[in-house]
Each structure stands twice: as structure tokens, then as C-alpha cells.
């Protein structure tokens, strides 16, 4: 039997606060979604003046990232390179902004962000992950 790390409530709160602080510092209105390793939602917050559609996008990015065990940017790049069959894959959001949370080589969750440019969404997610002393 093997053991693996798991996110705690405190971890989730730290990441959420750091991600939202990064967004606020840049005056970006976003939705932040944090998932466990099974793709279950642990945290969701839509900021003031953020479009309602960002909720589904942030959740889709986060879920896609954790279930695929990679950044959603990778799927976006694959599609841009002409592998359009990925558009029919059962993943939800294949656009940058979903980043896995990796501890000791194990994906323990993910953060999905939506509301600004995709690369800015990803930067917000990485800021959240960095709050745990991890690279995103």
C-alpha cells in the first residue's frame, strides 16, 4: 500500500487567499476554483464584477487540469498544432488557466482561474500554488 499527500483545509485557504491577492493587486476580476486530486470542488469564489460565465470556465479548467494531470495550456497548444481530435475529448476546458498542484511528483489537486487573459489566469493559479512553497 502506498501513501500520498493530500490538501488540507488550511492549504486550500492559503492558496485561495494568495491567488485572490495576486488578482486584486493587478485589479483583475476573476473566479478561482480549487479541486482535490479526484476532481472534487473544494473552493469556489467569483469576485465582484466578474462575469457569471467565469464560474463554469474556472471549474472546467481546474477539473481538466487535475483529471488530465497537466496544465490546460498543454491541451490548448496541442489543438493549435492541428490535433483537433482533442476537441472531442471528454475534458471540459482546454484553454490556459488550469494548473495542477504537485507534491513530491503526485498531483494532489488543481487551481482553475477565469476572468482575464488566459496567461493571467494561469499566473493567478501559480500564485496560489506558490503560497504552499510549491512550483506551479
Automatic annotation (TrEMBL):
It comes from the Bacteria. InterPro entries: GlcG_carb_metab_protein, PduO/GlcC-like, PduO/GlcC-like_sf. SUPFAM superfamilies: GlcG-like. It holds the Pfam family HbpS-like. PANTHER family: PROTEIN GLCG, SLR1406 PROTEIN. This is Heme-binding protein. It comes from Paraburkholderia saeva.
Amino acid at each position: 500500500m502506498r501513501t500520498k499527500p493530500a490538501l488540507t483545509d488550511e492549504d486550500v485557504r492559503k492558496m485561495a487567499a494568495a491567488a485572490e491577492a495576486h488578482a486584486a493587486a493587478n485589479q483583475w476580476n476573476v473566479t478561482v476554483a480549487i479541486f482535490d486530486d479526484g476532481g472534487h470542488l473544494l473552493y469556489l469564489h467569483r469576485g465582484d464584477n466578474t462575469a457569471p460565465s467565469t464560474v463554469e470556465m474556472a471549474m472546467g479548467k481546474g477539473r481538466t487540469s487535475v483529471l488530465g494531470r497537466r496544465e490546460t495550456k498543454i491541451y490548448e497548444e496541442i489543438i493549435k498544432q492541428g490535433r483537433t481530435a482533442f476537441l472531442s475529448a471528454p475534458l471540459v476546458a482546454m484553454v490556459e488557466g488550469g494548473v495542477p498542484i504537485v507534491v513530491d511528483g503526485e498531483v494532489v489537486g488543481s487551481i482553475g482561474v477565469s476572468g482575464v487573459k488566459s496567461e493571467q489566469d494561469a499566473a493567478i493559479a501559480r500564485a496560489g500554488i506558490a503560497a504552499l512553497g510549491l512550483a506551479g
